[in-house]
Amino acid sequence: MDKINQDVAYFISFCIEQYKNIKGIDGAEVVETFAKYGVMDYLSNHFEILHTQSKQWILEDIEEYIETRKGDVK
To answer: Which residue of 33, 60, 61, 62 sits 20 to 30 Å from the alpha carbon of 49, by its own alpha carbon?
Structure first.
């Protein structure tokens, strides 16, 4: 795995852990939610910008991203 892919993987892992903690759910539930709404692709595709933001900003952004997609996912 090259350096950038490793950094992205660590960032996504960080986001999963932080989201798990604020929602009080387990990691499997977070992965399921992130997969359902395309969050991991979003985090990966926007890594360069997102990883420079605060933890709180990232979590709020993930929440907003999921909320905007809830009507699209059946």
So the answer is: 33
Residue from 56, 54, 41 nearest 8 by CA: 41
The tens digit of pLDDT for each residue in 17-65 reads 999 999 999 999 999 999 999 999 999 999 999 999 999 999 999 999 9
DSSP 32-64: HHHHHHTHHHHHHHTHHHHTTS-HHHHHHHHHH
Is pTM beyond 0.70 here?
yes
